[in-house]
User: Fold this.
Amino acid sequence: MKHPPGKVYDPPLRKPPPELVEAFTQNGELDLEFWYWNFKNYHHVTLFNKTFIDTLIKNDKNKKMIGAYGHESAGLKELLQKYAAELNGKSGIVIGTQHPWVEVMLLNVGVNHVTTVDYNTITIEHPNISVISVTNLAEKNLDGRFQPADFAVSFSSIEHAGLGRYGDPLNPYGDLESAAQTWCMLKPGGLFFLGVPANFGKRKGKIRFNGDRIYGEARLEHLTANFLELERRPFEYDSIITLRKPLSD
Assistant:
């Protein structure tokens, strides 16, 4: 996490280097297509003040849609409500955010504290939400200061890892490493709500370089390795898989 492998390209590459094509396509188990993005210098919103967060909390409680993904956002909320008894009073992490709607949904199902993990420097002004950079989180893990999380949520994030569209290092295994890092940060028995584009039941997936990955079973079995799969919710784009870290290795 602290020193991710791979080279950073500026601007991001439009095609994977020839010597990495087999690795990016998992030896042909992902079809290679092209969907180019350059978010290296994209200016994200960096401050979400308490008034904004309080409004989101109120709107979510009043059953107004606060997520940016329509049915997928509603599906995640249903899952969080389903597991509310396990989440109540707990602390966990949200991996990647451009808008803190996931964090707000978690607070509204009874979560005590949410830590948002992101490469960007952002501020979320709420006493029950904190933000940490990936680098600082890695340092806390290395020196033993990190307290394992009760749960983790990643929605529309991991499928981009390692493709370079955000100025991140090019890494064919970036998504698999992100999922493995999440496993390491969870307590035994911890829940992981994973939202990624997926075609359940189909062996082959695709990589749309440098935009994203759409997962087939050949890649999903690596992405979710070592987790127990509890259920799947298919949606038009970002489907949701509910996973659990086993109580023992």
Summary: DSSP finds eight helices and twelve strands in the chain.
